[in-house]
What we know:
alpha+beta, five-stranded antiparallel β-sheet, 660 residues, 39 strands, eight-stranded mixed β-sheet
Amino acid sequence: MENLKLKDFLDYKFLSELELSPDKKYGAFVMHSANYESNKYLSNIWILNCATLEYKKLTSLNEEKNFIWLDNNTILFPSMRDEKLKKEIKKGEQWTVYYTIDIHGGEANEYMRIPMKVTDIKKIADEMFLFTATYDHYGINLHSIEEEKSKAIEIIKDNKDYEILDEIPFWTNGEGFTNKKRNMLYLYDKGANNIVPISKQFENISITSIKDGKALFVSECFTNKAEQTNELYLYELYSKEATCLVDEEEGYNIEFAEFVGNNIIFSGSLMDEYGLNQNCNFYKINNNNIVLLYRHDFGLGDSVGSDCRFGGGADVRVYNNSLYFISTESKSSYIKKLSLDGEIEKLTTDNGSIDCFDICNEGILFIGLRGTKLQEIYKLNSETEKQITKFNEIILETKNIIKPEPIEFINDDMKIEGFVLKPVNYNENKSYPGILDIHGGPKTVFGEVFYHEMQYWANEGYFVFYCNPRGSDGRGDEFADIRGKYGTIDYDDIMKFTDFVLQKYPQIDSKRIGVTGGSYGGFMTNWIIGHTDRFKCAVSQRSISNWISKFGTTDIGYYFNSDQNLSTPWDNVEKMWWHSPLKYANQVVTPTLFIHSEEDYRCWLAEGLQMFTALKYHGVDARLCMFKGENHELSRSGKPKHRVRRLEEMTNWFKKYLSI
């Protein structure tokens, strides 16, 4: 067996978008791989035969990242294959071209063109589609070319070398400036080649369910400040009317809604007890009344952290009058089944993460990180999981993969769960350096799944240890609630965990331990170096240093900061400053590397710059590495060369100070 190398993630296969055909006989999914030379990800659609479980590649241009089923044998996917059209498109224009391909073979054929940047599309009837697309109220929108023509000419002449800001948020991580840009809803009649707007002028729309010529969508409408409540609508193709089912005044933050039998079920939170991070309950709409169906005190979706995913997929399905969904409990995510009488059944086991899934009569197909394996497709029958694909089997067969050792301890009468990776070729008679890794969120979790950077460091000779302190997901609202407590009970959990690990594993040299984390983990890294000198070095990634500045400069700052700190810069600026790591920067002696992305609007570059400047000002060794063209997702989906450089920077910093 060979040691895992830094660049080995370039050989991993990432799976996403698993979707079964309408007759449930075939499945389609996307397989992605990183290409270092072209510095991008190559994506192709694959087909799985649900009866034989054989799978094959369907497309080969390496650019097919998503699709929908048009019928039992035909896939519809966006692509820009017409070189002539590429040349004709003017600067600032947006077109989405769709192709069809028969899953049994043959060439892809152009099916339709939509003169907008489509973000999601659903078939609602034959040759009728609901889609969402970006509409820029201050830009060029070609679906109404004549009325936009004069404005478009002026914008192109001006090169749009300025931005107008008149609302918050004015930018969004991964999207850039979004001021007066909306994800609007449209009906497209392919036969008539006609596009009809459905949503109101300043609405953001998310389509959640389609059934029998009807659709459910969640709407958020604002002109000055986006709030965290939204509305649920029912759209009927026959009448071309949208009816509001849940009004914004009800106070819900709605995650999704589905048709289940003759019922409509939605998942949402009133945010009335635990704020923004409050877990969602399930509700049923009966005769225009909202009825609680099930109080669910666990997180929706998969929040188990890993740097070995790319792309997405459905985490909610409806089958045989039951709702199926992914939920995170403790250190794993599960598929659960909710019946119309309010009973929940857990279907999968405690074995890692479920990333997306679909259902047929023969069982459930899902993409997941199971145990210490990289992503594969599995089939679940009753309680038995069977691995179907072997895209990443070669990694397990040829590389040293370290199995995490779960550990737990009690702090303040709370059980804290953690994990330890021993260094490769571990010898209990030797002494080793260690790295404490802290997850983001804070409402996410670490589990036992494959995490490339941690596996790599263990293969480089480090102990790696990590835990789920208070504030993490999977343990209910009370455990996750650290509003107004950042840097107190969570910090205490992490320090006590470090003490426990050092006691349990005396082979770790306590004078040679480093610390790192990203996002919330970056906040905690900044906090740690201002409150203890026990770590020989630190790497702070996409961090938070100043809650006051973050409030007014980031996409979520104006609502997330006030919620999580129970204060604003006006009603209690002292509290926001007290919880800011920058306040304690004059106490730092730990050499620290800062990793930030230039286009990270979630934890903006200014947060890292402030902490970096403070350390330099006070004579502490510090280095900042900024990645251009990257955002908050650098470590998970950044350009391959940037991901390599990031991990090189971090590893070299640890080697410099921990003497590997």
